Recover the amino acids of this structure.
């Protein structure tokens, strides 16, 4: 099984070591169907944020948080992706900024079915 779970600038689980903390990029070790999810929290920030899950440099899914009357708000999403060996996946902050950085965020993924 290949999976990873990243949180608070550290990797909690990285079976197979295919997630690189320095670049925050997951590289698929084999062709297959992968599941990815992310949860990003903006704190004390009145700007709208948009976070996208990128596959090989292209946005696949996005999540938004834009309520200006709360001190904390979450943007979450998940997807199943068909990936080829060496395909890359990472999160990108497309809009806004995260007060406190990524420390309130998680990014997880695992191989569902090898092809």
């Amino acid at each position: 099984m290949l999976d990873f779970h990243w949180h608070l600038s550290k990797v909690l689980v990285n079976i197979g070591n295919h997630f690189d903390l320095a670049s925050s990029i997951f590289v698929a070790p084999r062709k297959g169907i992968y599941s990815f999810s992310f949860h990003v929290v903006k704190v004390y920030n009145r700007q709208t944020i948009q976070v996208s899950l990128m596959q090989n440099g292209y946005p696949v899914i996005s999540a938004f948080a834009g309520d200006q009357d709360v001190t904390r708000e979450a943007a979450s999403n998940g997807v199943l992706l068909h990936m080829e060996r060496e395909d890359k996946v990472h999160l990108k902050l497309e809009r806004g900024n995260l007060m406190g950085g990524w420390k309130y965020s998680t990014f997880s993924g695992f191989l569902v079915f090898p092809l």
Notes: The chain has a mean pLDDT of 85. The radius of gyration is 14 Å. The beta strands are 3-7, 10-15, 19-20, 25-27, 32-43, 49-55, 58-65, 72-83, 88-95, 106-114.
